[in-house]
Specification:
Cytochrome Bc1 Complex, Chain D, domain 2
């Protein structure tokens, strides 16, 4: 059951092929331009506004949006099933700067081409995308900033 839940949780994010409701998607034309530094950092906010960590936590644990729990352990006691494909996110704010965290959410493949983690703010070069998802990102720019703001609160290991 646990495995099934995890698989069902991961599928919409990883494959984007099996349906589900596109909530966070934005069309290509609306994509914010951003600069990457040293293949590791996106120093500037996508929105120019501070992210909201409370909303970021909601976006991160929402199974149709961030779905981070499918692959990561997080300090989210109200949710039972936490994945183990990625590292535990507790204390991640001590290990990464804001600019590095932003890149990890926007497109972690810039830092590590082999990573299994999805790019949450990319709408090209995705494979096997259903028609209704084509040209869409998983999260919009404000949701990315909110998730980044939430991650910066994860200081305790
Ligand atoms: C399909 C699995 C998957 C999902 C979903 C996923 N990640 Fe990851 N994530 C990984 C893996 C695997 C890594 C390990 C590093 C790598 O592969 O580059 C990682 C690495 C990270 C890192 C760097 C952590 C470290 O200690 O090195 C952060 C931060 C992160 N993920 C945040 C998130 C957030 C926030 C979400 C949800 C918005 C998310 N991830 C969703 C798989 C996933």
């Amino acid at each position: 059951m646990r495995v099934l839940k995890l698989i069902l949780g991961v599928l919409p994010v990883v494959c984007l092929t099996l349906g589900g409701t596109p909530i966070g998607g934005v069309a290509a034309a609306e994509l914010v331009k951003y600069s990457v530094v040293e293949n590791e950092k996106i120093p500037e906010s996508l929105t120019g506004k501070p992210g909201d960590p409370v909303n970021g936590r909601k976006v991160a644990i929402n199974r149709k949006l961030g779905n981070c729990l499918a692959c990561h352990k997080m300090p989210v006691p109200e949710q039972q099933f936490h994945g183990e494909i990625g590292p535990d996110l507790r204390g991640v704010a001590k290990r990464y700067s804001v600019a590095e965290l932003r890149l990890r959410i926007v497109n972690p493949k810039i830092a590590n081409a082999e990573t299994f983690m999805p790019a949450f703010y990319r709408n090209t070069e995705l494979t096997r995308v259903m028609k209704k998802w084509q040209g869409k990102t998983i999260l919009n720019a404000q949701q990315v900033e909110d998730v980044v703001a939430y991650l910066t609160t994860l200081k305790d290991e």
